[in-house]
Every structure is written in structure tokens, then in C-alpha cells.
Amino acid sequence: MATRHAQARTATESADAAAGAGGDTARAALLFAAVFFFATLMMRGPVTSIGPVAEAIRATFGASYADYGILTAIPIAAFGFFSFFSPQIAEKLGLRRAVGAALAVLAAGALLRTAASLMAHWPAMLAATVFVGAGIALLNVYMTVVVKVNWPHKLGTMMGIYTGVIGLSGAVGGLTAAPFAEYFDTVAATMGFWAALSFSAAALWYGFSQVGDVLRAQRPAAGASARKVEREPLAALACKPMAWALTGVMGLQSLLIYTVSAWLPPYWASLGMSAQTTGVWLFVYLVSGLPASVFTARFMTLVKSDALAVTLLSAAYLAGLAGWIWGAEHAWAMLPGSVLAGASQGAMLSVAFLLMSKKSASDGQMLGISSLAQGVGYLGAGFGPVLFGALFEGFSSWMPAFAFVALVIVFWGVSGVLASLKKTID
């Protein structure tokens, strides 16, 4: 009898210990997810906060529209250029430390940009923007791999949430930019807000991100996900047509969001809107992408065809663009136009990440295709705001510039259809 009681007591204690360990694991997983998504929140706001304060920036620095176009193009070009160096850095530092280094570079650039705004020093502003772009460029590549490595069995859901948080970052940047600048009577306040957040994200990542390594080590099948991520050489990927189709999907959606985010506020200002109002409309456009990005995987499953999914998204974006143009004379069209375009834009980014994940045969190939697609894609996307501005100034009309945007939307759809033709990159 005593033996049976002892065995029962031992079993109960083991069950309690297992339950406690399970609770600790759940809390640790939640902590890592929170730190990861807070870091993700830094990946667009520092860039989209520029558009709503475009006129204030021009006044502060004495910059022309051409100068402003260069400022908006720098982060996108940096996204492309520095993406090519991301695999080597990750191989040298490890994925977790590489993310921390990227956040540190972003925070330093954001702080320097704040100082440049206080001193009204244009060259320093441009240099600081390069650092901001470099930090985000590395995060663009690393964070998708972090999702694939840490949540392999929830890839669609977590990639959708990740994309949604990126959209939220852009929306917050657009919404808060003008109020901060107007309340403090300086654009440095807008820049300082993101500097403070970036330093907080870097500190949290350095303090708690190792939890992710511990969680991966505890998995029964940890070997595949916890091993060192080794990239596939870019030269090998560059010989594969599928890799270039994926690059088009990634790059053209990037060109769209940064061109639109940079130039919609000046367009709306030309219609007589205040800076705060343009910030609100930019927020509506960007925040509309949040639910769309989260449910993109389900949407693609529902339509049962990746090619059909990208075709429908292209059509919806074109309808949204028409709503913006028509909204110049019919204000009611602004809301459906912004929602349609924003939802399409958010889903487009999710499509890019999901296709890269689905077509990649390994974590290393994912790292390689992410580097190639974002490197080449963002370098091309950097010309978007400049070309839009050149078309607007050259024709003294918004219509040729918007025609350029419409053409990019069509080309994105074509790239998506081509990327859907094969199951793998090989």
C-alpha cells in the first residue's frame, strides 16, 4: 500500500513538474514572440514617417522637390545594396546576433537623423538615412528566416502576422509624423520618436532574444531548425528563372509601397489637405493592409491558385488607384480607394514572403533567395520615387506619374503568375 501511495505521489509530482515546465515554455514562447514583433515594428515607420512631413522637411533644410525625391529613394536603395551583405553577416555572427546588429545600426541612424534635423544639416540627414536603410535592409532579410526557423509548423499564420506588423509599423509612422512635428514645432520630434523606439527594440532583443534559441533546442525535432543556417550562393540562384520571378514579386511591391507612401501626401496636399489630414489618409492606406496580410495565406488557399490570387490583388490595387484619382473631384472615392489599394499592398508583401518560403527547399535557400530578391528588388524599387517625381515635374501633372504606378501593378501581377508556374526554385 505504501509503495502504491509513493508511486502515485511520484506520478503526481512529475505531472505537476511537467505542467510547470509547459507553463514556463509557453511564457518563454510568448516573450520571444513579443520581442520579435516589437523589433518588427521598427521596419517601416522610420521610412513612412517622412511623407506626411515632406513640406516641413523641405522648409527645415531648404530642400527642393528633387532633393526630397533623393531623400525618399535612399532607404529603398539601401535596402537593396545592404541586402547582398546580409548572408555573410549572418554566417559570421549567427542569425540572432545579426538581427541585434541590424537593430543597433538602425537605432544609430535614427539618432543621427534626429541630430541632423535639429542642426538643419542636409548632408548629415542623407548620411543618417543610409544607416536607417542599412539596418532595415538586414532586418528585411533576417526576419523572414527567423519566422521560418522558429515557427516552421505555423509558417502561414506567423508570416501573415509578421507582414501585418510591418504594415502596422508603416501606418504608425504615417499617422504620428505630422502630430509630433506640429506639437513640438520641429521635424526632429518625428525623427526622435523612432530613435527612441529603435533603441528600445535593440535593447530588448539583446536582452531576451536568446529565449528563441532555448525554445528551438527543446523541440523534439530541433536538429533541422536549430542547425547553422548556410545560404545558397547567389550566383547559383541567379541562374534560376524562378528566382528572378520571385525577385519581381518582391521588388515591384516594394517599389509600389515606397513610391506611393512618399508621393501620396504631396498629391493630397495639392488638393488642399492639411499635413495631419494627409497623415490620416496615409494611415488608412497602410493600416488596411494589416488584416489583408494576416489572412493572405488563407485567401491563397481559398482561391486554390497562386496565379489567380495575384491577378485578383492586381485588379483590386488598380481599382484603388482609380479611387484616388477620382477622389480629386469626388471625395467619397478616397476611402474605398485607400482601403482597396492598402489591402492589396499588404497582401502583396505576404504573397512575396509566402512564395519565397514555399518555393525554398531549405532554410539556407530561403536566406539566399531572400537576399537576392530583396537586394535586386529594392535596388530597382529605389528608382520608383525618383521616377514618379520626374514624371510629375516633367509633365506638370499627376496623371503620367499615376500611369507609371498602374504599369508597375500590372508587372507585379505578371511576375506573380510566373512565380506560380513551378513548385520549387530548382
TrEMBL record:
Q: Where are the transmembrane segments?
A: 28-45, 65-86, 98-116, 122-147, 159-181, 187-208, 241-260, 280-300, 307-326, 332-355, 367-392, 398-421
Q: Please, which domain of life does this record's source organism belong to?
A: Bacteria
The Major facilitator superfamily (MFS) profile domain is annotated at: 29-424
Q: Which UniProt keywords apply?
A: Membrane, Transmembrane, Transmembrane helix
- Which InterPro entries did the record assign? MFS, MFS_Cyanate_Porter, MFS_dom, MFS_trans_sf
PANTHER family according to UniProt: 2-NITROIMIDAZOLE TRANSPORTER (PTHR23523:SF2), PTHR23523
| The protein, known as | MFS transporter
Biological source species: Sutterella massiliensis
